[in-house]
Amino acid sequence: MFAVLRLDDEAYGARVRAELLAQAGRDVSPGAIFTTLERLEARGMVSSTYGEPTPERGGRRKRFYRVTADGRRALAASLETINRMAHGLALGEENS
């Protein structure tokens, strides 16, 4: 969902995949991207719309995604939880 937020109006499958690789160093399969986006949409975390057909895509339309208000709240809560859990940890050092 962070990738979808970062991409804003340009959040479609291939761009989400490229953003995950660029920002997180994760090369995720296209199938995994679409499966995840479909599940997030079913849970109300993202919504999708279809763009206009383009000649470079052989007349096919892109499916664009946006994070919903519920998705934004879930991301904020997750980030807050991660920050609380990480507070005070000496990351990069071995814990004894």
Q: What is the gyration radius calculated from CA atoms?
A: 16 Å
Return the average pLDDT rounded to an integer: 92
Give the spatial strand order of the biggest sheet.
1-2
Structural class: mainly alpha
The proportion of strand residues reads 5-15%
What is the H/E order? HHHEEH
Q: What's the multimeric state?
A: single chain
Here the CATH topology equals: Arc Repressor Mutant, subunit A
Helix content: 40-55%
The major β-sheet equals:
2 strands, antiparallel
Number of strands: 2
Written description of the protein model:
The structure is a single chain. The protein has 96 residues and is mainly alpha-helical. The protein has one domain (2-86): Arc Repressor Mutant, subunit A (Orthogonal Bundle). The protein is built from four helices and two strands, in the order αααββα. The chain has helices spanning 2-7, 13-24, 30-42, 69-86; strands at residues 46-50, 63-67. A two-stranded antiparallel sheet has the order 1-2. The longest helix has 18 residues, at 69-86. The protein is elongated and about 55 Å long. It starts with a helix and ends in a 10-residue tail after the last helix. The model has no long low-confidence stretch (mean pLDDT 92).
